Amino acid sequence: MVTDTISDMITRIRNANMVKHQIVQIPSTKMSIAIASILKDEGFIEDFEVYNETFSKYLLISLKYMGKSRQPVICKIERISKPGLRVYSNSKKLPKVLNNLGIAIISTSKGVMTNVKAKERGIGGEILFYIW
């Protein structure tokens, strides 16, 4: 059993991206569905679907590549807040990732969102990971 589902999701996406797989299967949780919808809205993945089987639920995420050489859209994905060391930030000190070329995924009291949306709404939270 996996104790840190966010790190598991990030690792599966990173590994599938490195070997240029088209889809990746991830165990489904409310957090992973929220993260996948943000990644789709921001253009880092093509699409995702939730599958319910008799004993398990999982996500199928379709990864995105550019050009004939199939360069991955996701250059780097880096976990920030971990179960052993949580990292929080208020709305005024939210990070800029590569001068706003990348995004930070923030878990707030109003749900999971990007650093740009959290700054607009004036709320802070736990910084889950950076992606660019």
UniProtKB/TrEMBL annotation:
This is Small ribosomal subunit protein uS8c. SUPFAM superfamilies: Ribosomal protein S8. InterPro entries: Ribosomal_uS8, Ribosomal_uS8_CS, Ribosomal_uS8_sf. It holds the Pfam family Ribosomal_S8. Signal peptide: none annotated. It comes from Biddulphia biddulphiana. One of its GO terms (biological process) is translation. PANTHER family: 40S RIBOSOMAL PROTEIN S15A (PTHR11758). Gene3D superfamilies: 3.30.1370.30, 3.30.1490.10. It is found in: Plastid, Chloroplast. GO terms for molecular function: rRNA binding; structural constituent of ribosome.
